[in-house]
Amino acid sequence: MGYVDLEIPDEVKAQILEMLSVAKDKGKIKKGVNETTKSVERKQAKLVVIAEDVTPPEVVVHLPQLCKDANIPYAFVKSKKELGSAVGIEVGASSVAVEDPGDAAEKFNDLLKKLPKPKGEGA
Questions:
Q1: What residue ranges define each of the domains in the chain, with the CATH number in brackets?
Q2: Beta strand 95-100 with 28-31: parallel, antiparallel or unpaired?
Q3: Predicted confidence band at 120 (pLDDT cuts at 50, 70, 90)?
């Protein structure tokens, strides 16, 4: 996958999915590329998670740069199916944006420390 420019260990990917499954209940999560893009552009996203198996990759290729420009952390997980199921939908999700982690705030903050910082304008 040429556009995946972050190396994220598998155990951190598992923690991301676990955090999302908690955050979806009482937090605020935007699902899908269009909702994610809007959330980043409005600077409401606190974390963006993108599936690595999106085809064609052009569908999500703009998201890392958008996140960098807005100084919003982002991460990749292996599959759309994993991502969709973590946020409680039966279909795959190409990307999600966490606007409010809700009850997963502690896990969320812990995760942010493990993720690479976005290298945008402010970095």
A1: 10-114 (3.30.1330.30)
A2: antiparallel
A3: low
